[in-house]
Amino acid sequence: MSRSQRNDNFIDKTFTIMADIILKVFPASKEEKQAFFYYRDGMSAQSEGEYAEALENYYEALQLEEDPYDRSFILYNIGLIYSSNGEYLKALEYYHQALELNPNLPQALNNIAVIYHYQGVKASEKQNIDVSKLLFNKAAEYWKQAINLAPNNYIEAQNWLRTTGRLSA
């Protein structure tokens, strides 16, 4: 039984039914439809904190999905899981892969910046000032790109850039 058939939430069930109806009439190949089912089940598992199951579904979806735009969101979600698990290098890898396919993903740029900022804070706590500056500057680069794509988002990042003098640079 697929995850989508086990959903107990009314909204999830409604979404699943609507998605199934749309997929039946939507002119897509069998592989594209199957990729969507895996992606949807991955999102459902991820929202419930079932990261191993979500990753399995996302990897299956990647095997089937050919559209670069759709693949970028699968890769982005894989990055989210690795980041949530504290595997920042793997997360960065997947965020960058997503951006290669879809450079208009401000959320991926933001998450990359968050990882660099976090690492900068850790380096600063260890009195490693040169490394922390480097990491903070990298965070600033990515936040500027994210803000450029979504100017009304990332207000805290904009404030940080402003207060640290990195906004205009």
TrEMBL record:
<feature type="repeat" description="TPR">
    <location>
        <begin position="72"/>
        <end position="105"/>
    </location>
</feature>
<keyword id="KW-0934">Plastid</keyword>
<feature type="repeat" description="TPR 2">
    <location>
        <begin position="72"/>
        <end position="105"/>
    </location>
</feature>
<keyword id="KW-0802">TPR repeat</keyword>
<dbReference type="InterPro" id="IPR019734">
    <property type="entry name" value="TPR_rpt"/>
</dbReference>
<feature type="repeat" description="TPR 3">
    <location>
        <begin position="120"/>
        <end position="153"/>
    </location>
</feature>
<dbReference type="GO" id="GO:0009535">
    <property type="term" value="C:chloroplast thylakoid membrane"/>
</dbReference>
<keyword id="KW-0150">Chloroplast</keyword>
<protein>
    <recommendedName>
        <fullName>Photosystem I assembly protein Ycf3</fullName>
    </recommendedName>
</protein>
<comment type="function">
    <text>Seems to be required for the assembly of the photosystem I complex.</text>
</comment>
<dbReference type="GO" id="GO:0015979">
    <property type="term" value="P:photosynthesis"/>
</dbReference>
<keyword id="KW-0472">Membrane</keyword>
<keyword id="KW-0602">Photosynthesis</keyword>
<dbReference type="InterPro" id="IPR011990">
    <property type="entry name" value="TPR-like_helical_dom_sf"/>
</dbReference>
<dbReference type="Pfam" id="PF00515">
    <property type="entry name" value="TPR_1"/>
</dbReference>
<comment type="similarity">
    <text>Belongs to the Ycf3 family.</text>
</comment>
<keyword id="KW-0677">Repeat</keyword>
<feature type="repeat" description="TPR">
    <location>
        <begin position="35"/>
        <end position="68"/>
    </location>
</feature>
<dbReference type="InterPro" id="IPR051685">
    <property type="entry name" value="Ycf3/AcsC/BcsC/TPR_MFPF"/>
</dbReference>
<keyword id="KW-0793">Thylakoid</keyword>
<feature type="repeat" description="TPR 1">
    <location>
        <begin position="35"/>
        <end position="68"/>
    </location>
</feature>
<dbReference type="InterPro" id="IPR022818">
    <property type="entry name" value="PSI_Ycf3_assembly"/>
</dbReference>
